[in-house]
Design a protein that fits this description.
The chain has 365 residues and is an alpha/beta fold. The chain is built from ten helices and 13 strands.
Length: 365
């Protein structure tokens, strides 16, 4: 049977590390279970105006200040794009052809899996795309599965909720990434929904070793991974690095952060993972930043993000790490450390078994 996987991955705004890795992890998980698959090289309609290699040249409205910053760092973005593209070619089993809404009728797979990320949100760029619901005639009689799909913080009005109800009926099996999404769907759509782990947790720490490079730094360092600007985050990072007498390494597109420490803004996927693997401590404001800190059993804190807390809170509740969540504006003088990962890993093993069971059940045709 021919299996197709779709998500944000190859075409994710700002070359998103988490988007790339959750799709890789899911494909590797299927392979471990004995299923080969193809990742669809699919561009959502909202991204047609976006220039992934040179963001400054993207069409449409873009604040002049933002465009100037993008132009000033054009080589950094081009370098990172090249590294991401190289990862896709070397590590993805993907379609050789690129698809969009105009040629999806050419697709011919037995099983379609919509996998992870914020794909079912009316306020997310590209969210609610027709392809994320396999809402095309040539897919009507095929097995359709939603695995660990996120709905963000569920900002649905009556119109978008009605649309969701109609489109979600296309699926034979549905699972979501956040416990709040499961509750929301059970209440509003009355469909059978399971809560599962994000794909990055389906692999063990050792499974990522094949992607790692030699130790990224010869000395201790505290790692910052930041997508949005968050009050208090960098002050906390500086304080924690001083507490450990360690360097501060920063992965962020906010170039002003270079005043705090060494930036790795064009890190490759392997460099990204290696930096997490060897970090003394992690400070982040992203779901996958917290996720990889947990995968590698790191001490960390994660800052909440305005209207984007559901996915972060869900994984912290699942792993009993609620104390690692900080509200925006909070500044730590010293690190909040995790006493032991024994309980965390035990809970993850149980959730992983449940998640794998869902996949096996959905594919047992």
């Amino acid at each position: 049977m021919r299996i197709a996987i779709i998500s944000y991955n190859i075409h994710s705004v700002w070359s998103n590390y988490g988007a790339v890795l959750h799709s890789w992890a899911f494909q590797q998980t299927l392979l471990k279970l004995g299923y080969e698959s193809k990742i669809l090289d699919y561009v959502v309609d909202d991204f047609k105006k976006y220039n992934f290699k040179y963001p400054a040249l993207s069409k449409g409205t873009l604040p002049i200040r933002n465009r100037i910053v993008l132009l000033a760092n054009v080589f950094m973005y081009a370098s990172r794009y090249a590294k991401f593209k190289n990862f896709f070619e070397e590590n993805y089993n993907k379609t050789s052809k690129q698809y969009n809404k105009d040629n999806v009728s050419e697709l011919d797979f037995d099983i379609y899996i919509c996998e992870s990320d914020v794909l079912w949100s009316p306020v997310s760029i590209g969210g609610m795309d027709r392809m994320f619901f396999f809402d095309y005639p040539n897919m009507a009689k095929k097995l359709k599965i939603a695995y660990s799909v996120s709905m963000g913080d569920m900002h649905y009005d009556d119109k978008s909720l009605s649309l969701l109800k109609r489109k979600i009926a296309n699926f034979d099996y549905v699972s979501v990434r956040e416990n709040t999404a499961k509750d929301f769907l059970n209440k509003n759509i009355k469909t059978d929904v399971e809560h599962v782990l994000d794909p990055v947790f389906l692999l063990n720490e050792n499974d990522y070793n094949s992607l790692l490079i030699d130790k990224a730094m010869d000395e201790d360092y505290v790692l910052v991974y930041s997508i949005n600007r968050t009050k208090g985050l960098m002050k906390t990072a500086r304080n924690i690095s001083e507490y450990y007498n360690a360097k501060l390494i920063i992965i962020s597109d906010f170039f002003i952060y270079s005043i705090y420490g060494k930036t790795r803004n064009n890190a490759s996927i392997t460099e990204f993972l290696t930096l997490f693997k060897n970090a003394k401590y992690v400070i982040t404001n992203t779901f996958h930043g917290a996720s990889f800190a947990i995968v590698f059993n790191k001490n960390f804190v994660v800052y909440s993000k305005y209207n984007k807390n559901a996915k972060i809170k869900s994984i912290l509740e699942t792993t009993s790490l609620n104390n690692q969540l900080l509200e925006e504006g909070v500044v730590l003088k010293k690190p909040i450390e995790i006493d032991s990962y024994k309980t965390v890993n035990a809970r993850l093993r149980k959730e992983k078994e449940k998640s794998i069971h869902f996949i096996k059940k959905a594919l047992s045709i």
